[in-house]
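Re: that backbone. Tokens:
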């Protein structure tokens, strides 16, 4: 789905994956999408409805990414 592609591409283009090894990137993608569906489904739904990343959705996504990466990097 478009909304899942958007959040993963956003993470990559905004530099959130820069510190991860190539092996970790695929793990990140799978785990992050599961996390988004479980914890932040409203963001995914918002992107699907709006068909764009509004300023509000962008800020919510940044917050979600930062929280997720705090735990992901510890693994």
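Recovered sequence:
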């Amino acid at each position: 789905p478009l909304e899942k592609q958007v959040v993963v591409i956003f993470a990559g283009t905004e530099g959130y994956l820069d510190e991860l090894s190539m092996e970790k990137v695929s793990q990140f993608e799978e785990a992050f999408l599961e996390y988004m569906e479980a914890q932040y489904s409203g963001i995914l739904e918002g992107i699907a409805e709006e068909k764009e990343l509004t300023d509000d959705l962008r800020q919510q996504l940044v917050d979600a990414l930062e929280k997720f990466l705090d735990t992901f990097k510890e693994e």
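Residues 22-39 form the longest helix (18 residues). The domain at 2-72 is CATH 1.20.150.20 (Lysin).
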